[in-house]
Fold each of these.
Amino acid sequence: MRKKREIFLLDKFPYILFGIILIFSLIVFLPIRSCMPLNFFSGAQEETENELEYSIFISSPTNNKIFSFINQNETVPVEIKAKEVENTDYTIKLLINDNEIKSFTSPPYEYNWNPGSSGEYEMIAQLVDVNGNIISSSNKVSFTVEYEFETAEEDTIISIDVEEKKAKILSQSIFRSQNTIPTGVPLFSYKCYIPPVIDGVFQEWDRFESFTAFEPTVKKENYTTHTDISGTFYSCWDDDNFYFVVQVVDDVPNQKYTGNQLNKGDSITIVFDTELEEDMQIPFYSSDDYQIDFSPGNFSDIFAESFMKWPSSAPPRGV
């Protein structure tokens, strides 16, 4: 007969002790684990916002540049490059001679600054947080502005009367009168030193000349009053391009044409006459005119487009 083996509590003691230690370890570990970051036990390092390297750099104007202006409509082009700034709530402040002239909260960080007077200037940009603390500063840029119209005896600038200058230019110029209806004088297009931002915002164009008094030339019978269609035209230029913007207000947009037919619908036509002196008495397009038609489309299945008509006397493209 097999003898019955008796099991005592002491025989289970090692197992009981192990269980108690395990439970105690879990009780201690879990609260500590919840207070630690997820990457603490993985060996990864957490990159905090303060550890990011922010940097800003003034790329325009360049240091020690001299601007020689002939009128007070000309501006100093300002461009700032920024690193790791776009997705923050920081602000870039632009200071000239310690005076804040502009602040940016989003790119592009570009601005046309009108100095108004000759002098030496120092420019710096600062990256600041919502509390006004400076996070980073840019390079310092020194530049000089000189206006052409200055007296030899004094350092003061003679006030430039733009209208007088325009009148002088017109008195020495020959222009086609039919192109000046209804104002009677041509529209002046000023030179710009940094291209306008193409973003649909018109405030930047306010420093350039504009006109709103349009005179219909094609299908005049379809035009009633300015409530039918109206608009505002601005333009400027630099050494490389001609820039313009037209804000059109149309009570009933109507465009169903594309390609070389798009000017049969609502559109804008710009013509560049390369031999204007020879065409003074010609009331129509000639073989030296470049014509560009712009269409807004119909805001549905016809997209915005442009179509250019090259004059027959134009030199071969690419030559």
Amino acid sequence: MIRVRVDWQSQCPGCGTQLAVDFLENLPDSTICPWCGHVCAIGHQPDYDQIRSTLRKAARELEDQANAKAPV
């Protein structure tokens, strides 16, 4: 089964590690850097819910098409 993932990405202000959080799931207010333990705030924007809804619909369509063609 194929699943599409959309990441919210940022750089840890503590050590510079690239951080990624699944944007289509419930986006938390912060995430913890696995390397240095710095708590990194996720800057929620007012239009994130609308963007997430649009991306979920598009991802679902891509998954349905890909999984229909994928051999079992």
Amino acid sequence: MFNFTAQLVLQNPFVVFISFALLILALEITIIFMKKRFPVLTFLLA
């Protein structure tokens, strides 16, 4: 499984970049959502 993933990464570095960007985007959306829902919680976390 790891060899397959490594081969995929080596062949398509752009795929890794896209997945990384999507991960960051998901984190940003989660943070924004939490700020709207739980302002006190994000204040304590930040």
